[in-house]
């Protein structure tokens, strides 16, 4: 079973549901591309041969707000495409079994025009019956690996990632290779599972953050500061790596073509059009909400909190860094069709 | 929207998941009848015209243990009937949006042979797309009304239920009539919703406790004791009634025949075969776990706790009462087929 790191949703000021602005922006940026995929590429006649129900899945839905916005948008695009009032929609919200589905269910809009289901489980395994899903959506989720590649923790491996917490920032190419290899294995599982579940002609849009440089390095250096101050054992940092890989269009193309169950209808790497002035502090609080589960899981809550607090304190430095690196962070959009 | 009273699942010694023995016995008693309904009455050819997936719903699943046992049992019976390995099962666990779905999901067996979905919402409303469900199961749930009939609270109504908390124990026939009328309205909604959702030839088994006398009277008298001791305002008791009606075979037959979408394949009122010696204290703790949500909602937690504690203290008296009234408590089983 894949490792899971529940998103921080303790209802505090730093909780995910109050700090998912970055993910929301990524979602908003991809809105038109999702709509275009539905309007231009989806063949409803093939899919709806024997029923009037369209089944939609959001994979990695987390506790809510962004997923609800995305699903509303997908349903609206499907309605606009297929002007038929007898069409019914069933949306399956999926995330790890440790996700707070109670919070998600309680935030569902009353006036929704779809039937709701929550589906617990890793999207690297099967989640749905064969040929039962018509449209899959997943935003800011597939960059989470099922686990960290084990070589990173192995002193004897050339991919040992000593003193670092990610491939980004590491100069050791073997570290990057280990991440790529894990990503390819995971994606193969992901595509095989979806190939069984999605009807012929059904579609899948995947949206993933893309970066060649990463704000997360700042968390790594806060951890190393704690080591240098004698507050944290270095071996604890060596035994920790972030299970995230940011796939490039080339990475995705390679795994999809090898898998061969899906055709690529569109693949695009985009960068925010306007030079959005992000408040570094808000961004770090956002990242914090995402990473806290992983950090607490490994270091315990005291070190996790101190790491996050220290990183947030460096917001001026991060702000300068962000201006210099703005062009390195974008998002990958990919629309696939089940052959 | 129907009123909901989340089951007590605070993981305490009195929580529902640790105190659902009564519901488990009702379930065990009906096990063979559920199996018979599947083996003898279900026509798989009609249902599975275009897919290999059987969709099963458990309505009023609560936080788990009994529902998981029931669904395992239903899936096994379906497998035994239809010896075909390509058959897939998708189970929809339904309960109010306030139900603890997180607890349910975390207690799912790893080796289950069905796909899981959680569906939040009142079963008096629509829950699923049209013609999407093959088999509905509901145990110990349909006796919960969507709300209490309003006449019970109305001083000017002949059905005003002064000083009482239920129709059982009241000598006023208008009180009973008000409950029956609410039950009929609710069941009409229930059957209409299911008639849309269940495929032609699909089946529904409903299991409900039946009693003409009730342990709950003891809770009522504990509440009145608090009134007599000046610890509770009588108007608070007058403005409270338990939203439960225990339908008889005649009640069910009447609503099903009027509704006309379902045929009755079997209807039976059964009483425990062996004279099970129930420990009154355990039974009261069980009832307490069920009623606490309703009581806290109306009286606040302090009075609710005191009422339950006082009632549990009377276990010897209740024990004697139970022996004298054993033959009055049974369970109603009904198997319906969508015409």
Helix-strand pattern of chain A: HHEHEHEEHEHHHEHHHE
Proportion of strand residues of chain A: 15-25%
Please state how the strands of the largest beta sheet of chain A are arranged side by side.
3-2-1-4-5-7-6
Number of strands of chain A: 7
Classify the oligomer.
Answer: homodimer
- Give the chain pair forming the largest contact, with residue counts: A-B, 33 and 33 residues
CATH architectural category of chain A:
3-Layer(aba) Sandwich
Helix content of chain A: 40-55%
CATH class of chain A: Alpha Beta
Radius of gyration of chain A: 20 Å
InterPro entries (chains A, B): MeTrfase_7 (IPR005299), MeTrfase_capping (IPR042086), SAM-dependent_MTases_sf (IPR029063)
Keywords (chains A, B): Magnesium, Metal-binding, Methyltransferase, Transferase
GO molecular function (chains A, B): metal ion binding; methyltransferase activity
Pfam families (chains A, B): Methyltransf_7
């Amino acid at each position: 079973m894949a490792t899971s790191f529940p998103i921080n949703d303790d209802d505090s000021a730093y909780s995910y549901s109050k700090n998912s602005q970055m993910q929301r922006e990524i979602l908003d940026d991809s809105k038109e591309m999702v709509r275009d995929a539905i309007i231009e590429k989806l063949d409803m006649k093939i899919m709806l041969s024997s029923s009037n129900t369209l089944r939609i899945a959001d994979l990695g839905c987390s506790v809510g707000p962004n997923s609800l916005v995305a699903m509303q948008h997908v349903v609206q695009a499907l309605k606009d495409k297929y002007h038929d009032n007898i069409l019914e929609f069933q949306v399956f919200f999926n995330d790890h079994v440790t996700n707070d589905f109670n919070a998600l269910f309680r935030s569902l809009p009353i006036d929704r025009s779809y039937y709701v289901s929550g589906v617990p489980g890793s999207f690297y395994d099967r989640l749905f019956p064969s040929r039962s899903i018509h449209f899959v959506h997943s935003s800011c989720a597939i960059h989470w690996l099922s686990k960290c590649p084990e070589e990173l923790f192995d002193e004897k491996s050339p991919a040992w990632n000593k003193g670092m917490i990610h491939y980004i920032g590491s100069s050791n190419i073997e570290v990057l290779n280990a991440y790529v290899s894990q990503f390819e294995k995971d994606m193969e599982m992901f595509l095989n599972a979806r190939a069984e579940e999605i009807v012929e002609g059904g579609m899948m849009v995947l949206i993933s953050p893309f970066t060649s440089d990463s704000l997360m390095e700042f968390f790594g250096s806060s951890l190393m500061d704690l080591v240098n101050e004698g507050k944290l054992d270095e071996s604890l940092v060596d035994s920790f790596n972030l299970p995230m890989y940011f796939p490039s269009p080339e990475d995705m193309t390679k795994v999809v073509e090898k898998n061969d169950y899906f055709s690529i209808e569109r693949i695009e790497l985009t960068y925010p059009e306007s030079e959005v002035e992000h408040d570094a502090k808000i961004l770090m609080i956002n990242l914090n909400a995402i990473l806290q589960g992983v950090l607490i899981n490994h270091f315990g809550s005291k070190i996790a909190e101190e790491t996050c607090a220290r990183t947030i304190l460096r917001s001026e430095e991060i702000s300068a860094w962000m201006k210099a690196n703005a062009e390195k962070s974008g998002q990958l959009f990919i629309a696939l069709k089940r052959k």
